Amino acid sequence: MLSRVLREDRRIPAGARFAITGALSRRTDLVERTLTPIGGSPEAPFVQMDPHLWFVRPYVAHDRSPGWNDPALIEGAAVTLAGLHGIAVRLQGVDLPGYDIAELLGRLSPYHWPVWTVLDRYDEFVTEMRKRSRPQADVDTVRRSLERLAKEATELRLGLVGLTHQDYRPDNILVRDGKVVAVIDWALAHRDHFLYDAVLAALHVAGHQPAEDRARATRRFVDAYLDAIDVEAEAAAVRWMFRYVVTRKIAVSGRPEKWRALEAVVGPLAGPGGA
């Protein structure tokens, strides 16, 4: 299949992205190795035609409209993400010959920063919102929320760090007969808190539910994820991450109204084992 990603100088560079998928494809069938198109090379398996990079990936047979209200599929997707994070732990992130992880993270634009950078430099993060002409009311709300979240984070353990997908949502999870068969679109992948990836994914799944079922589906995803990755997570850290994800997505998303609607989900969620 011919695919494309937007070329942005302040994202992880294209060569590193394909190194990530290549490393993962050697360790799991859920990530397909990128094929080299005509005009590309093994070192740069893509063709640049501004503003996009074009590449080829194998076709994976999948259901066009999987039932994302199915509890078994929600839990299966969570377990799949936990498995991918487990691979990342064993790899100590992902081996990227020729790339320095710290240098790669340092070149990211604020909208792609990992959690700890946003918290350390939230003034620059909200400045990016102003540059992108976001409504001043949103800028002020995000700044106040990030300031509060940064103070609270000093008392929390947010868990393991490693390679995260950053966009693990139903559109990027290919399903066949109720089972996850592939995870695509690793263009945003970089080092971050695994809990961020899990909570973001849970809220994406919640967006596919009727309003009355969103909190239940979100909790189901996060509980299944935490059980599968076999780590203890403080309920307070999980609650904190839900608030952080919604705040961040209101700032960066092209559809902030979607994330404002999901704020109603975050309130009653107490995290695993809490009430």
UniProtKB/TrEMBL annotation:
InterPro entries: Aminoglycoside_PTrfase (IPR002575), Kinase-like_dom_sf (IPR011009). It holds the Pfam family APH. Residues 70-224 form the Aminoglycoside phosphotransferase domain. SUPFAM superfamilies: Protein kinase-like (PK-like). This is Phosphotransferase.
